[in-house]
Amino acid sequence: MGGQPLFILDEDAQRTHGKDAQSSNISAGKAVSESVRTTLGPRGMDKMLVSDDGDVVITNDGATILSEMDIEHPAAQMIVEVAQTQEDEVGDGTTTASVLAGELLTKGEDLLDDDVHPTTIVEGYSAAAELAQEAINEIVLDVDLDDETLVEVAESSMTGKGTGDVEAEKLAEVVVDAVRHAKSDNGVRRDNIEVHTQTGAASSATKLVEGVIVDETAVHDNMPSSVENASIAVIDTELDVRESNIDAEYNVSSVDQLNAALDAEESELQGYAEEVVESGADVAFVTEDVADRVASQLAKEGVFVADSISSSTAKDIVEATGAKRVGSLEALDEDALGHADSVDVEKQGDDDVTFITGGATAESVTVIARGSTEHVVDELERALNDALDVVIAALDAGGVVPGAGATEIAIADHIRSEAASIEGRKQLAVEAFADAVDVLPRTLAENTGLDAIDALVDLRAEHESEGIAGVISEGQTGVVADPVEYGILDPAAVKREAVDSATEAATMIVRIDDVISSS
C-alpha cells in the first residue's frame, strides 16, 4: 500500500528489545544483588547509606540496604521486591534471597548466550526450585524446639549484626523469653511483641518487660508516677469543653450571664473528672485532649492520666490489660476497665516513659533496646526484629535446618543428583540453578577469609561423607564442619521463601525481551 509510515508509539518513547533488553535487565538485577553480597554471614561487612538530606544509616541488613537505595531501573526494583517479600513473609534471609536471585540471573545470561530459550530456562528453574524444596524438607532437623534450640536460632540470626557491647547469646535469650510470653494455643502473635528503642545506655541494658511501654506520661505534675494494681480506662473522646458544630455568636449582656456561662463550663469539666473517678479507674489513657482543669481535678483524686496517645498505642494497651475502648464517658463503667499489676513512669535516657506491666491479659511484651547512639540502637532494633521473626518462623512454620551454608550445599547436591533424569535443554537450566545456589556457601567462605574454591570442594566432600557441612567462622578465618554442633541453625521457612522469591524474580526478568519506556 504505499503511503505514510504508521506510528504506534509516541515519538519520544524509548524502546530496547532482544538481546539488549535482556542484557540491560540482567545487568541491573546483578548489580543490586552484588551490592549486598559482602554483608552475608557472620563476617559480613556493613554499608553506610547517606540520603540527600544527610541522614545516615549504617547496617548490614539486606532489606534495609535495598530499601534505602535510590533505585530507578525497573528490573533492579524487582530484586528489591524480592528482599521486601522475604522480609514481610519470614523476617530474615533478605540478603540470601537477593544474592541467589542475582546469581540465577548470571547463570541465566550464560544460558541465553548459549541459545537456550528463555522459556526453557524458566521451566528448568521452576523444576529445580521444586527439587530445592524437597532437599529442604529432607534436611529439616528432628529436634525439639526447646528454649536452648530457639536461642541458637535467634543467635544465628544476629551473629555478625550490630549488637553493640552485648553478645548475641544474651540478646537471643531475651528474644526467646519474649516469644514464649506471647505464645498461645493458636501460635505466636507477632503483634504482641514490641521493640522499644531508647538511647542513653549500653546495649547490655536491653531487657524484656512483661507489658507495654507508652511514650506519653501524666498530663499533670501532681499526678502519681506509680500506680499499683491499676484499674485502667482507655477513652476515645475529648475531655474538654464541647464546641458547637455551627458558627454562632452569643451575646452576654450582664455579669450574671457571664458567670452562668463560666459555671456551666466548670460544671461540664467537673462532670468529666467525676465520671472517670466514679468508674473506679485510677489510670486513664485518652486518645484526645484533656483540659487542664479536668487534669487538675483528676490529679487531686490521685488518678494518672495520659492524653493524645495514638490509636495503635491504645490498641496495645487494650490487648495487654483487657480494657475496652469507650467512645464516651457514659460507656465507662467497671466492665470497661482493664487491669495491670503496675503503671510506672521511669526515666529512660533523657525521656520519661510509662511502663504498663503485668496486664490482666498479659501476652503482650516489650523488648527495650538500648544503645549509646541512634545508629547503634537502630541496628540493634533491626537485629532484634529479625531474631524475633526467625524464632516465630521456626515455631510456626516448619522447624529448623543447619545454617552456615549447609542447607544450600544439600540443595545443590540434590538438584545435581536429579538433573540427569530431566530431558532436553531444560537439564542445562536445572544444573545452572544448582551452580547458582553454590554462590551462598561460596560467599560465606569468601567473607570468612577462606579460599572460595577450596572451601566449596571441602564442603562437597564433607557433605558427601558426613551428610552435613557448613562454613564456620572461627577466629580470623573459618573451618568446614557440622554447623549443628556449633549451634548454627536457621528456620526452614527462611530457606523455602528465599528459593521461591529468588526464582520468581529471576524467571520474570529472564523472560523480558522488550522494554518500552515513555518520555
Supply database-style keywords:
single chain, 519 residues, alpha+beta, GROEL, domain 1, GroEL, 2 domains, seven-stranded mixed beta sheet, three-stranded mixed beta sheet, 16 helices, ATP-binding, TCP-1_chaperonin
Task: Give a brief description.
It comes from Haloarcula taiwanensis. The protein is of the alpha+beta class and 519 residues long.
Q: Overview of this structure, please?
A:
There is one protein chain. The protein has helices spanning about 20-35, 60-70, 75-90, 95-115, 120-140, 145-160, 170-180, 255-280, 290-300, 310-320, 375-395, 405-420, 425-435, 440-450, 450-465, 490-510, and strands at about 15, 45-50, 55-60, 185, 185-190, 195-200, 205-210, 210-215, 225-235, 285, 305, 325, 340-350, 350-360, 365-370, 400, 470-475, 475-480, 490, 515. It folds into 2 domains: about 20-140 and about 400-510, GroEL-like equatorial domain (GROEL, domain 1), CATH 1.10.560.10; about 210-360, GroEL. The mean pLDDT is about 80. Helix 12 (about 405-420) runs antiparallel to helix 13. About 50% of the residues lie in helices and about 20% in strands. Strands 8, 9, 10, 11, 12, 13 and 14 form a 7-stranded mixed β-sheet that branches. A 3-stranded mixed β-sheet has the order 6-15-7. It is built from 16 helices and 20 strands. The chain is α+β, with helices and mostly antiparallel strands and about 525 residues long. The longest helix has 24 residues, at about 255-280. The two termini are about 30 Å apart. Pfam families: Cpn60_TCP1. InterPro entries: Chaperone_TCP-1, Chaperonin_TCP-1_CS, Cpn60/GroEL/TCP-1, GroEL-like_apical_dom_sf, GROEL-like_equatorial_sf, TCP-1-like_intermed_sf, TCP-1_chaperonin, thermosome_alpha. GO terms for molecular function: ATP binding; ATP hydrolysis activity; ATP-dependent protein folding chaperone; unfolded protein binding. Keywords: ATP-binding, Chaperone, Nucleotide-binding. Belongs to the TCP-1 chaperonin family.
